[in-house]
Amino acid sequence: MHGLMNRAIQCFVRDTYGPDIWQAVVRRAGLAFPDFEAMLIYEDKITVAVLDAISVELVKPRAVLLEDLGTYLVSDPNVEALRRLLRFAGICYEDFLHSLDDLPGRAQLAVSDLILPQLELRAQADGRFVLSVDSARMGIGPGFGHVMVGILRAMADDYGALVMLDHRGVTQGREEIEITLVEAAFAEGRRFELGARSG
Question: Which GO terms describe its molecular function (predicted)?
Fold first, then answer.
């Protein structure tokens, strides 16, 4: 697993639950180091051990933790870069949804050895979509779909859209998320500027 992914998990735990919980996770997972390095590659079993340790320490199912991680990746000020990458997809939530197929490729433009699951969006009738997430590429089993649920929910808030999301489980090795766009302009979205501010 790429160090960026592991570092994101570490930052999520530390920023949300505090450094003491992260240190407890380090001990429980049997890590020989206190912090992940963003540009290293780690064995997948290390990531699995960390996720298991977080689940035990926080007494939360892995699916809930991964969804919370997805929300954190978009909404926390400490990780603004991912939100910016996602917001470049378009001016409305539906534009964002239609850009998801290209997300793994866009991520690799930024970090060439970063592997994300393949995403495939299928439009249905009446504002409904199904997002297929090929988590097998991640090497840690199903679960990235739950991260995507958190990202999708946080991005809906970002755009001011009202959506309903349902993780439908795994079908033929791919996680499926049903997305119902109830109202595209339900509330005022978060401010977004194309150019990054300096200083």
Answer: heme binding
* 48 & 116 share domain: no
Domain that holds residue 118: 91-183
Q: Which pTM does this prediction carry? A: 0.87
Work out the number of other CB atoms within 10 angstroms of the CB of residue 163: 21
CB distance 135 to 104 below 8 Å:
no
**% of the chain beyond a pLDDT of 70:** 90
Q: Answer with the one of 44, 60, 76 that is the final residue of a domain.
A: 60
**Residue range 102-158, pLDDT digits in tens:** 887 777 777 767 778 889 999 998 889 999 999 876 767 778 999 999 999 999 988
Comparing CA positions, the residue from 135, 118, 139 lying closest to residue 48 is 139
For the cut 60, the answer to whether the pLDDT of residue 36 exceeds it is yes
Residue 196 lies inside a defined structural domain of this protein: no
Whether 72 maps to a domain, the answer reads no
